[in-house]
Amino acid sequence: MDGLENIRLEGHVRIFSDCYIVARPLADSPYCRLQIGAHSMIGHYNHIIAVQDVKIEEHVLTAHRVYISDNIHDYENIALPIMQQPIKQIGSVVIGAGSWLGENVCILGAQIGKHCVVGANSVVTGGVYPDYCVIAGAPARIVKRYNFETGKWEKTSPDGTFIG
Question: In the prediction, which pLDDT does 1 show?
Answer without folding.
Answer: 87
